Amino acid sequence: MNDDTGNGQLRAFAAIARNLKVIALDCDGVLFDSREANIRFYSHIMTRIGRPPVRADQHEYIHMYPVRESLLYLTGGEGEDFDRAFEYFKTIDFGPFNDYLTREPGLVPFLKLASTHFRTALATNRTVSTMELLEQFNIREYFHLVVCASDVSHPKPHPEAMEKILAVFDVVPENVLYIGDSRVDEALAQATGVHFASYKNPSLEAELHIGHFQELDCLFDKRTAG
């Protein structure tokens, strides 16, 4: 983001940053480039139950939604195929699929600074694989709170995950920056009133659009001075 519009966003956002107390992030597409892993994961399940692999037009949905909703979508709704797919999912070792994840550039330096100067949270539609993934990539220590789909009754874009973050840290929406990459993240931010930064997705409605975590260095300028 290096045009005049982007610079204007950054200047405006620097003023907002003074009130921030919490930085929350999505997982897939923000911490990691996970599209290849997701495609392989769901294609593996579909093949196992005798269905074709995931099609190109289905990629966006499985990238945004949790496992149960994604399997309902892929199998056409509740029924025998969904039941078989969901039962098989419960037996899967996620480790081999995590090998297809790649950590986003600049992530670790950003998380180190963020967790030092703010409270940090993860709000993800991943389920039981979340903690294993954070441990595998050695970034669990940078999150003061992790809220995954298994921790709430309603996954994103329902506001419950963000409401939990607000309650745990005892803050109001204007104190929170949420970094996401999908329409689901956009809807979550809009539903809860938190500040929203779009990561690598210029089509989203956001106060800030970034393509690299270094573009958020303005968050730390005054906090690291002196």
Could you provide a short overview of the structure?
The chain is built from eleven helices and eight strands. The protein has helices at residues 4-17, 35-48, 59-64, 67-75, 80-89, 95-98, 107-117, 130-136, 160-169, 183-192, 221-224; strands spanning 22-25, 32-33, 102-103, 119-123, 145-147, 176-180, 195-199, 208-210. The strands form two sheets. A six-stranded parallel sheet has the order 5-4-1-6-7-8. Strands 2-3 form a two-stranded antiparallel ribbon.
What does this structure look like?
- This protein has 226 residues and is of the alpha/beta class.
- The chain has helices spanning 4-17, 35-48, 59-64, 67-75, 80-89, 95-98, 107-117, 130-136, 160-169, 183-192, 221-224; strands spanning 22-25, 32-33, 102-103, 119-123, 145-147, 176-180, 195-199, 208-210.
- The longest helix has 14 residues, at 4-17.
- It has two domains: 4-33 and 102-224, Rossmann fold, CATH 3.40.50.1000; 35-98.
- It is elongated.
- It has a six-stranded parallel sheet.
- Helix content is 44%, strand content 13%.
